[in-house]
Amino acid sequence: MKKTPDFDAAADFLAGARVLDRRVFERLFSGGPAAPVRDAVAAYRNADGGFGHALEPDLRTAASQPAAVEMALRIMDLADAWDERLVRDAIDWLAAIAPAEGGTTFVLPTLSQGPHAPWWVAPGGNPASPIQTGQIAGLLYEHHFAHPWLDGATRFMWSAIDELTEPENGYVMFGVLAFLEHVPDRARAEAAFDRVGPLLLSRGLVTLDPEAAGETQSPLDFAPLPDSIARRLFDQRTIEAHLDHLAAAQRDDGGWMFNWPAWSPAAEADWRGFLTVDALRVLRGNGRA
Q1: For burial by CB atoms within 10 Å, which of 52, 133, 232, 286 has the most?
Q2: For residue 109, what is the DSSP state?
Q3: pTM
Q4: What is the pLDDT at residue 3?
Q5: What is the Cα–Cα distance from 134 to 98, expressed in whole angstroms?
Q6: Is pLDDT of 1 > 90?
Q7: Phi and psi (nearest 5°) for 240?
């Protein structure tokens, strides 16, 4: 019998989570309206149009950060609560701070204005990052959102993908796959995926054993839904095993836990709320709920 999650236990757990995650849960699983999700996202917005205030739980500074913009867009997308004004203001901010080559950097030096995970380090020279650039660009293309920033981001991503042979880590592939999933030039995207997609396997970036310990990334991280561009890399038996593992990972308190270091109680609580909602979304999207 296929393992399934306990939604009632998850709801009890989320009663102690961020308002944002509670609103997304209501939207996705209880028929809640979009406006409260939009309002909850907007609470993290800054006057410059960007987002901060620990919307990305490992970056707790109030200052706007590209990763927080990506998180804002991702949540509005997942909850079907896309707000054109919030998005345009955020992309206007990205355009104002864009590197010379286009796109956006991984993280800005303003991360030092608040607590942050030790693995977040601002690179010198403000270089563009395929991680943030690809994920944001993919979301904009998914919503047919035109902006001059997207033009530069697209040129940067194609250049980065054309040169990609040794991804630094799996996070780079998150950006690459998000971009290839939605960029309008489908023939070029499919050809690019045929070349770079298999790097997940050949470079050991994805862990096929669902029971593997430590900070690993599973097929469901790269291909969470049946129509994900990278799903074709994995056979159905592997996917089902990881879905079983994901469903079984629900803890006694009703929530899910992450497999990277917990450096802050506040960040841990925020991530657990977000990931609990996301685990339920992935399980439902694969017929497990």
Answers
A1: 133
A2: G
A3: 0.97
A4: 82
A5: 14
A6: no
A7: -65, -40
pLDDT in tens, 92-145: 999 999 999 999 999 999 999 999 999 999 999 999 999 999 999 999 999 999
CA–CA distances in Å: residue 41 to residues 31, 82, 146, 263: 18, 10, 21, 24
Rounded-to-integer distance, Cα 242 and Cα 237, Å: 9
Residue 128 dihedral angles phi and psi, to the nearest 5°: -70, 145
Decide if 275 contacts 282 (C-beta within 8 A). no
Question: Identity (one letter) of the amino acid at 214?
Answer: G
Give the span between the Cα atoms of 228 and 220, in whole angstroms: 10
Dihedral (Cα; 139, 144, 148, 153), 10-degree rounding? 40
What one-character DSSP code corresponds to residue 158?
A: H
Which has the closest alpha carbon to 25: 274, 288, 267, 287? 274
d(CA 143, CA 146) in angstroms, rounded, equals 9
